[in-house]
Each structure stands twice: as C-alpha cells, then as structure tokens.
Amino acid sequence: MMGSHNHSVEDHPLSAPPHQMENLLLHDDHGVGGDETKSFSTNYRSAMSTLSESHHPLSPPIVAAPAESDPLRSPPHLHFPDSPNPNTSSSYIDPPSYAEAVFAPYDGETNGVDPPSPPLSLSRSPSSSAEYLNITVSNPVKEQETSNSIVPGSNSYVTYLITTRTNIPEFGANSDFGVRRRFRDVVTLSDRLAEAYRGFFIPPRPDKSVVESQVMQKQEFVEQRRVALEKYLRRLAAHPVIRKSDELRVFLQVEGRLPLPATTDVASRVLDGAAKLPRQLMGESVLAPHEVVQPARGGRDLLRLFKELRQSVANDWGGSRPSVVEEDKEFLEKKERIHELEQQINGASQQAESLVKAQQDMGETMGELGLAFIKLTKFENEEAVSNTQRIRAADMKGVATAAVKASRLFRELNAQTVKHLDTLHEYLGLMLAVHSAFSDRSSALLTVQTLLSELSSLQSRAEKLEAASSKIFGADKTRVRKLEELQETIRVTEDAKNVAIREYERIKENNRSELERLDKERQADFLNMLKGFVVNQVGYAEKIANVWTKVVEDTRGYVDEST
Amino acid sequence: IWQTNFPEYQGPEKIVIRRYSDFVWLRDRLFEKNKGIFIPPLPEKSAVEKFRFSAEFIEMRRQALDIFVNRIASHHELQQSEDLRLFLQAEEETMERLRSHETGIFKKKPSDLMQIFKDVQSKVSDAVLGKEKPVEETDPEYEKMKHYIFELENHLAEAQKHAYRLVKRHRELGQSLSDFGKAVKLLGASEGDALGKAFSELGIKSEILSAKLQKEAHQLLMNFEEPLKDYVRAVQSIKATIAERANAFRRQCELAETMKLKEINLDKLMLIRSDKVAEAEQEYKEAKSEQATKTFETIVKLMNEEMGRFQEQKTLDMGIAFHEFAKGQARLANGIADAWRSLLPKLEACSSS
C-alpha cells in the first residue's frame, strides 16, 4: 500500500503529512501517540476512544503530530516534548526558519494527494478488504507515434505507467504488473464500459482537453492529467461490479496495444451510414435484435433515430402510452430526489470551497502579522536604548511566534479540510454517472416503445393485407409474397422487441441496485466526511488555543498591573 | 460638520458635551503651548461620509477620545493646563466661541505669523548667501532617536495594516461558515434520517461559530488593532515634536548669529565712541534675553523625559494589547473546539444506528 501513498511532502519543520486514514488499517499508529496527560482534553479523548478504528486518532494537541505523521517519515521537529506542561515545550519552531517556514508552499496538494476512493472502499466494505485492487499511475513519458506522415516527429503523445497490485482471482496468478497506456486508451476504456454496463453508475473519465500540443507537453498539464487518471482508475477499481469487468482487466493487464475496439471515428461511421441508407430508404428498415442493445447513434442509425424521435414526441404529446410504464412513477420520484440531492450537494460543495478559501486567507494574514512583529522585535532590540524596549521586544516576540505557529496550523487544518470536504466534489462527479445511467434507461425505454409501436403498425398492416387477400379467391401471388415478407418482418421485429425489453429490464435492475448502493455508500461516505471534518477542526482548534494560551500567561502581568 | 457628541465626567462629577472639533481645538492649543511634550494623538477625522455614522466607527472614536483625555489628565504637566480646564468645564456656548476663533487658514497667533515670515526670510537669505541646507543638530544620540522614530513608524504601520486585515479575515471566515452552515442544513433536509440529522447539527454549529467569529472580529478591532493604530499616531505626534525642535534649533542658531552681529556692531561703535552705543547696547541686551535659546533647551530637556515616559507607556499599552489579543484568540479557538467536540458523540450515534 505504501507505493500508492508515497507523495513527496516537502520536508520542512511543520509539514505534517496529510491525513492518512488508509495507513491506519494496516499499521497501528496508536503506539506513536505517546503519553497524553493534558487534562483539559479528557472530554475530547473520551469522545475519541468511542470512535471506530477507521478513524484517525488525532490525539490531543501536545503529542498530536507524531500520531499524524507517517511512521516512516516523522519530521523530527514536529515531535513535541512528552512533558504535558506547555510552558516547557519552548520553541516549537527553530527561530531562524520563521520566514521559510511560513512561505514554503504546503506541498500536500501538488503531489498527488491521495484521492478519497481508497479509504472509502476500505472503510465501507470490510468484508471485501481481503480483495484489493490498487492502481498507481506514474512515470509519464513522451513517445513518438510511428506514422508515415510527411512531417517528421509530428505526432507525439504521452504514455503513463499504470501499475496494479491485486489479489483478485480474475487477474490470474499475477498479482503485480504494469502496462503503458496513453490517454486515448483511457477514452476507449471508458466508451467500452459505457456500452457494456448500461444502467450502472460508471465514474466519469477525465476530460479530453482541447489544448494545443505545446500545452499538452507542459509539466503541469501532464501532472494534472496523471492525477486525474489515477483518481479515475481508482474509482473504477472501487466499483464492485466494474472492478471485475473484462474491459478494465484487459486495460490494466494486457501489454502492448490495448485490445479493445477503438471508438469508431466519425468518418467510418458516415461511410457505414451511407451504405445502410439505401436499404433503409427502400425497404423496411429492420432493427436487428443485436442492434437494439445499444442506443441509436448518428451515422448508421439515422432512420432508427428518426423513428425513436417520432416516438418520443408521441410520448410527450400524450399519444398512446405503451404498456411499459408501470413503476415509472416510483422511479420518477427517485429521480426527483436524486436531482434535488445533487443541487444540495452542489450548494454545499460551493460553500465548502469558500470556507476553505477563508481558512486559507486567515492563515496567510496571521502569518504576515507574525512576520511584521518579528521585524519589529528585531528592530526594537537593535535600537534599544532602554530596558523597557527590550521587554517590549520580548513580549512582541512571544506574540509573533504564536502568530506564525497559528498560521502554520491554519494551513495544515486547511489541507485536511480540503481532503474531507472533497467527498462532496466526488459525489458531484458521481451525479454525472447517475445521469448517464438514467439516460441509458430512458433510451432503452424509448427503443422498446418504438419497437412496440412499430410492431403494432406492422401487425395492423398484416391484418389488413390478410383481410384483403381472404376476400379474393385465388390469392394474388404478389400479395401473398408481401404478406409472407411482412410476417417475417414482424417476427424479426418481435424478436428485437423482446431483446429490447430484456435489455430495458436489465438496465432498470442495474439502476435499482446502483441506487441502493449509492444510498448506502453515500451515507457511509458522508458520515465519514463529517466525522473527519469535525475531528480535524477540534484537533487544530485545540492546538491553536494552546499556542495562544501560552502568550496569555506570559502577558498576564500587564493586566494585573494596569488595573 | 462634525457630528459626534460626547459626554464625560470631570472632578466633582461635572458632565459636559463635546464635539470632535472641540478635542481638535484642545489638542492644537496644547501642542502650541507645550513644545517638547508629546501630546497624545487624536483619532483621525473620517473622510468617508457613510462610515462616519456607523456604530463601529463611533465606538472606536469614543474609545480613542476617552484615552486621549485621560492621558492628558494624567500627564503631570499637561494636566495643569488652563485649556484643559476650560475644555472640561466650559459651557457649550463658550466652547463654540473658542472654536470659531480657530477657524481660518493659518490658525496661528500673530507672533507665529511673524515667525513664519522670519523663517522664510532667513531661508531666502541663506540661499542668497550661498549657504546650503537649513541648520540641523548634529547630536549623534538625537540622530539615532530620530532615525528610530521614523523607522518605527514604518514597522508599526505595517503591523497595523496586517492587524486590520486579520480583523477582516475573521469576518470573512464567519461569513463563509454561516453560508456553509446553511448549505449543509439544506443538504441534511434532502438526506433525511440519521445522516440528515447529522448534517443539520453540523449546520447549526457552523452558524453558532460564525457568530463567535464576528464577535471576536469586533474585539480584535477594538482591543488590538486600535491600540496599534494609536501607537502609530503617537509616533506621528512625536514626529511633529521633532519638527518643532528643528524649528526651535534653527531659531536659536539665528539668534546666535544675530547676537554675534550685534556684538560686533557694539564693539565697533564703542571703538569710535559713537552716540549710538547706548542704543546698540540695548539691542544687544534684548537679543540676549530672547527666548529662542531657552525655548530650544526646554524642548530638548522635555523630549528626553518624554521619550523615556513614552517607551514605558508603550510597553505597558502593548503588553495589554498583546494580552487581549492572545486571550481573544485562545477564547475563540477554545470555543471552536468545544462546539465541534460536542458534535462528536452525536455523529458517533449516527453511524452506529
């Protein structure tokens, strides 16, 4: 597990590595906690002890840092002295490094912060923790496309190394492997999954970027994309059904060219469509059963599209309602609910962003204030003519130190907050998946309805033909042939209809089970998010309170004097 | 123009009402008559119309004016000033009359006007005679002190700027917590059940904390940012005294020159036994008794004392300000910790259900 959490946090005094919930299930960090005897945090500690082990034991402030840190990488400065007396824990920071410490960027965000999905999957499904599928995306490399183009070296692209560790049997005996893939392959994977798993909430893939090749090669862009790819693949790995899919397996395991049919480009579709068009225009267009399993797309399925469009208009305008409607009401209710939920999540996510910004600003300004006071302190000391100046300088230094510490704590708090509240953003992304799963359903329904109405019109035509031909003795040969053809068409259409209905039912079932899963997982995830957020706030608030309490004590003399 | 009215007590329980411009009057008078003494600073006039009537601004101003008067009253020289007594006891009409005296571009007495002309004159003659800059003291200790004061103002101004921003940040954080709380509550309503309840509790706490932050922002403004600003003003007041001292020094130099000239003249006349000897002697005696030297020496002595007192006072003032600042931050942080902590058992209950 270590490999996937190896983000290089800059090793400066107070850079506590980010919240590592995942680690805790594998290594018990409790031992590093040390002795906590601070009495005022007993309430907190007793609350803490009732929290399940899936929680980060953010132990009381004085010795919190070691518990937070990766045991392999405890920043030495962060190890607070074990003595409970805050007054003896002088200089949390080395004095000379104030400036650097405040202005050194907090690296947690930029170096592949752990996406929430691994901890989510771990804490949510303890039963399948025996089965893991851990994916890492790394090592972007620029490669040349070996094309016969006239312009040399024109088509270069980036490939990423995708390493997987798993014990899932479907992957075979191999538990550790890696392949190189380019972004185009990811698009292919996502398209194939969308086709094969209609009705499921498939995590959306990272966007294609409409940028020029120069930008594509920039370090920043490549890194952003690497992070996004990793998140995407991990989300796929977290989905109980998709993680076992052939498509994903092939993507992760098979070296060399990705053996999935690539998305057909527009040109060939147009050609295809053009070939089919004459047939469609002249004869009856027959919807082959295997075709109904996919929604109508442009190009090839032009006529089918038109038919389904006509059908949907008929539906909307209150035409004859086909029988496939029954429990739609319940579904529509759920859909409404999901829609509203999405809006609320969106609102909360926006406010979460502004909260994070406000915390960030607070930390920054506090730091600047601290620095200004440090300069003042230095100044007073240099220019001191009287003793009172030195005393004032000392007081000021106390405040300055506290402010700088508080500033750093705010920044850490914020980095953690970001990770927790990120859950909201995750779910917004998931909502997209829900939308497309719902539209899978509606398009399948539309197909069914179209087929049904087509069937009924075919059947009425057949009836008419039969009626007509039965009146005339010595059956008209052409009419008989027509009837036979018609009946053949009816049979095929009937088959297609059945397939379409089966497909629709399948998608409905997928929707249903996914909704169930969504509800359950969402409950768990959101609760975790809340807990994480609150625990984080408590921990840091206590630390900050400590920092200032010391200054209160140190300056207590002034208040008594002046009264 | 000025709107603030201000009641206060004095001695045997006398209450008078004063406007901001009355304070300005008092300060100007004290400054004129007590060169060398650091007169306590006044809060700024506010240029922005809208802001002038806000409750916060009035409160800040009131606090600053209160401190102003009390400082004067506790300064052993200034407290004896007649102007102070007038200020504290006169009826409103009297104050109005006194105030209107001061209007006018120069706001100075005739003798001062003369002095200004003289200054200009000497500057011109210096330029004509090819002298360089106006004469300045060369006392190294004094130079150090001047440098200190000027630098100090810069440092303090920066600290004060950040302190003010910090107040703003508190308000912003409070606002965003409030918005966050509302959004979370809405989300809770959508969710329902245990989770929904958890969200709504979180939302409620957020709103409570938002109020705490706003309150703390106000405290921070009054008890930390204001004292810093006051410190800056005090330093600016010292700069004004430094300017006065420079003036006095120049006049003293001029006087010394004048005296020299008169002495030479006198000797010359005595030599030729002129009738004008008596006249010249008289002039010489007059020059000798002129105040300029005394004024300057007084200023120097006073400034030294004042500087010492100033430093002591500021250590005390800042000590209190730091204490209040730290207390406020600790109080806030503890409040935040308590509020969130109280949620934990509820959240725990949610997940186990």
From TrEMBL, chain B:
Domain PX: 1-95
Keyword Nucleus listed: no
GO cellular component, one term: endosome
Coiled coil: 270-297
Protein name per the record: Sorting nexin-2
GO molecular function list: phosphatidylinositol binding
Pfam families noted in UniProt: PX, Vps5
Key words, A-Z: Coiled coil
Organism annotation: Cajanus cajan (Pigeon pea)
Domain of life, source organism: Eukaryota
Gene3D superfamilies xrefs: Arfaptin homology (AH) domain/BAR domain, Phox-like domain
